[in-house]
Amino acid sequence: MLKERLDPETLESLGLIKQAQQFNQKIVKIKTKLFYKQQKFNLLREENEGYAKLITELGQDLSGNLTSHLVLENIKSLIGCFNLDPNRVLDIILEVYECRWEQDEFFIPLIKSYMCEHQTLCHMLGFKFKFHQEPNGETPSSLYHIAAALLQHNLIALEDLYVHLLPLDSSIVEEHKREILEAKQIARKLTMVVVPSEKTEDKEKEKEKEEEKNEKPPDNQKLGLLEALLRIGDWQHAQSIMDQMPAFYATSHKAIAIALCQLLHLIVEPLYRRAAVPKGAKGGLMTPLRSKQAPRPAERFDDLSRDVFTMLCYLGPHLSHDPILFAKIVRLGKSFMKEFQSESRQDTKDRMDSLLSCFLSIADQVLLPSLSLMECNACMSEELWGFFKLFPYQHRYRLYGQWKNETYGNHPLLVKIKAQTVDRAKYIMKRLTKENVKPSGRQIGKLSHSNPTILFDYILSQIQWYDNLITPVVDSLKYLTSLNYDVLAYCIIEALANPEKEKMKHDDTTISSWLQSLASLCGAVFRKYPIELAGLLQYVTNQLKAGKSFDLLILKEVVQKMAGIEITDEMTVEQLEAMTGGEQLKAEGGYFGQIRNTKKSSQRLKDALLDHELALPLCLLMAQQRNGVVFSEGGEKHLKLVGKLYDQCHDTLVQFGGFLASNLSTEDYIKRVPSVDVLCNQFHTPHDAAFFLSRPMYAHQILSKYDELKKAEKGNRQQQKVHKYIAACEQIMAPVHEAVVSLHLPKVWDDLRPQFYATFWSLTMYDLAVPHNAYDREVNKLKMQIKAIDENTEMPLNKKKKEKERCTALQDKLQEEEKKQLEHVQRVLHRLKLEKDNWLLAKSTKNETITKFLQLCIFPRCVFSAIDAVYCARFVELVHQQKTPNFCTLLCYDRVFSDIIYTVASCTENESRRYGRFLCCMLETVTRWHSDRAIYEKECGNYPGFLTIFRASGFDGGNKADQLDYENFRHVVHKWHYKLTKASVHCLETGEYTHIRNILIVLTKILPWYPKVLNLGQALECRVHKICQEEKEKRPDLYALAMGYSGQLKGRKVHMVPENEFHQKEQPVRSATSGSLQNGPGNTGKPAVTAATASAGKAEEGAVEDSDKSKDKSQAAQKAASKNSTAANKVSSSNGSSTPNSKEKEDKEKTTKEKKEKKEKNPGSTPEAKAGGKDKQKEEKPTDSKEKTPKADKDKRKDDKKEEKSKIDGKTAEKEWSKERDVSNDSKTKEGSKVEKSAGAGSMKSLVPRSEGVESDRASAVKRELAMA
């Protein structure tokens, strides 16, 4: 009792025990034996028989009728018999299960039946995992498997097991961040310029890092468990583990990605076999998972949204590990899209919309990133295109945009891949030349199969800097896949739309070279390769909608390259002549570059425009944008740039309209282009553009109706054909005549008939003349080609035969086309001959008629295109040749040549070229008439257009005295030349950039026919030389133009003649005084002269004013007029008589008397009485009049020097002042016509040339003035 109660030290002091220390040790041993030593035999070494029997029981062959229930009973017996520890038994069961992990059907029910608590099992597994967490330990896959199986059957909870696994989640996150950082560093190094010494150091460091990575990575038990879960199909628990980790961290490990891919294979297999297997493909059958807990296989497309899409999203770019699954998913998508597109029921389609969104998401997050990680797999790229091409381009481009700009930044692997792609692209582009296009092209193709966006982005950036790369790059793109071509189109559009790039150069006067390079690339690439055009065309359309016209350059290039339609104002005369023929002649001789084989590419362009309904919108937007460039877009831009943009917009419209006219069928064109009144009134299309778009439609319709009438009533006679053609024209054009009435105010139609207006705007040069020379020229070229082929001994025989056949066929086509055009022109001319009597009503005055004709017809159209410029000149000549009533040819030409300053100043650069071409053609006609009396008499002698008397009663061809004779016509032509010189000198002296540039362009264009007079040529030469000196440093482009013109002008000097050879001037000088006496500036009662004496001053001052510009001119002129009134009156006093004969004097007096009587009744009422406006002016200033003395002519000669110094300003001022006053008389024209009619013989010959004497004086004064200058 004392030993139990007392402590050892006390017992030792009492002598009950020997030593307290020994006693303590003995007590510990007794207590340990008593309380801690196990009495039952539960260790293998202690009870080896029981455990041996247990292992034998679990390890026996399980293939027979043995069930887990029987084994469990035996295990219980062993536990009872040998007193085995149940937990130890469970541990042995797990060990055996680990060794026989494929026997899930046996062990899972056994464990289910055996265990009582989930926590116990979980801790046991946890201890097993803990055992393998040694520094060099490796967890066996069998342990992962049994853990996954137990999780799948809910025998343990994931949350309980997860805490036993390493590494920690925080370590995983840190590792992921480290990977991203390393990837970015690698990318940065690849883009940096490195010194060679640094390169070697970096390489050594990289080697060390690679060696470290090659060392065995630490065991990641979480990923091992995840893989096992995926392999047995436990997606639910696998998803939970993946959610604990950073995005795509788990699948970035190849084993996990492959396990997930395998699971996806099993799920999609039934649906793939049913709906997506290509014809002829067999494929291997896959055995489904035996576990009932595994995800169910997909039988329909709806089943994919259950698990498949989610799994793919977790897989992300790592689908690249399994190209076969990639192909299956793509084919399923393709099959779904076909079903979706063929589905007609709306409710089903709405249900399928969500699936469509899912497929788009998969394409964005999985398919495209996976393609980037695949190593140059062209088959997968083509497979993916089969799926993508079923989407509209908007969806595709959205996907490409995400792929290019966002995907590569989300994954460490993709960051590295991007850097490597750029590095490789740099390597290839540095070595790309015209000579090594093929090998470089193969390398580009190989690189583009996986990462096209990155490659093309770099290539385009290089092209923007170096435009000489365009040709080799285009040639090297032939190894691309269809998907790559589509991506290229997107990359080009993205580069064009880059908001950070300025589309103007720093000087703000020209379009940036990068934009020009990209536009050129667009044309070449889209022509050569089958790339969809819809996106690019829509981009241009959207830019136009936004009021931006820079990108029209792209459309211009695309149409030029794909359709072979070239727009240039620098055409040669031969090309222009060829452009007036048929389509075959245009293609052969009309363009600088003979663009062959455009049939397929132009068809593609046409289909893209029609399929996306962009043809008409583009036309209308371009037509509207022309004015938008000036008034909306051009507010802050440099005038030079505004002009270029206007020209670009206009040229592209002409080119695009030409493409539509030549490529669209009649039905397509008529269906899409509305009537001209709708175009103008509803769509606010300018009239010239509206008729330009409608013109091909009228031609198509007339020909169709003509063919219809021919078939209906068969008759081969030429006369019958002509009548049928005229009937067809009347049927088609009648609605057009009604439609055009709404385009202008009612008073316009008092002079011009709608029929005349519509005829002018609906015809082309093709309708008026056959270019026989151009046809002959091209046929001769082909004959020469055939001859050259025959003489070529090196060419193979079969190629010779083929080339000869091609040339012969082309020759036959041209000859047939010429014959067809000849018949057509004859029909058109016959039609015009019948129509001409009803063209001009002239209810007001002939002057007003000409004004409206020029304002509404000639001027708008002559600057529309080069061919239209020629057409306008030829149409004026045709109207004259047809002897059209009420059309004064002289007045028309006079108005065109008299004052070109305002017209020239308001033109853009290209318009001035066209205007120059128009003037050139007009001058050509005038020069032909001027050159030979016989030609003049034949073509003008008895024509109403050269009538110098204005009668409302019409033209009396019998009265020869009313006609302008040849010599007086030569005086008039000299006056026109003088007027052109005066206007040119004025423009050159303004110092304004636009004036100088435009007049130099116009002068260059009219050089073949002007100047013809030596002193006028010298005047121009002097002014141009001055420009060359002044602009050499300031404005180099003007200097270049001036130098070019100056050189050509010097070359033309040999063709110039003195003034007295150009028109007779010596003889009339002697009679100038008497002429002055009879018709002085103050002689208001004698404004008219005979046809022989002719008053060019009147023509210049009275009948040739431009009423539309009179206000502007008068304001500018009044100051000059007040300053130079004396000089102006002297100029106006130059209305002299060309012959001193007394009969003519009597005629003059008689005419003057009649005029006075008329003036008393209704002053200034007739169109001819416009000269009276000038007389009025002179009556208001009687002190300046010199009519009473013969001194007028003497004073004029005396003050020549003073007068000529201010002649340009003074004459212009006087003319413009008189014009301002004359405008006020126009309102009385109708009444005046009646008076004139009642007066009978009373008439006024107002449009006649100035007397030769005065002309000679003026010319000599010009010489003196220019010599002084």
UniProtKB/TrEMBL annotation:
Pfam families: Tho2, Thoc2, THOC2_N. Residues 197-220, 1063-1269 are annotated as: Disordered. Residues 198-219, 1098-1114, 1142-1162, 1171-1237, 1252-1269 have a biased composition (Basic and acidic residues). It comes from Cyprinus carpio. Residues 1070-1081 have a biased composition (Polar residues). One of its GO terms (biological process) is mRNA processing. Its main location: nucleus. It is found in: Nucleus. This is THO complex subunit 2. It comes from the Eukaryota. Belongs to the THOC2 family. Residues 3-278, 299-442 form the THO complex subunit 2 N-terminal domain. Component of the THO subcomplex, which is composed of THOC1, THOC2, THOC3, THOC5, THOC6 and THOC7. The THO subcomplex interacts with DDX39B to form the THO-DDX39B complex which multimerizes into a 28-subunit tetrameric assembly. Component of the transcription/export (TREX) complex at least composed of ALYREF/THOC4, DDX39B, SARNP/CIP29, CHTOP and the THO subcomplex; in the complex interacts with THOC1, THOC3, THOC5, THOC7 and DDX39B. TREX seems to have a dynamic structure involving ATP-dependent remodeling. Interacts with POLDIP3 and ZC3H11A. Keywords: Coiled coil, Nucleus. Residues 444-519 form the THO complex subunitTHOC2 N-terminal domain. Residues 749-1049 form the THO complex subunitTHOC2 C-terminal domain. The keyword Coiled coil applies. InterPro entries: Tho2, THO_THOC2_C, THO_THOC2_N, THOC2_N. GO terms for molecular function: mRNA binding.
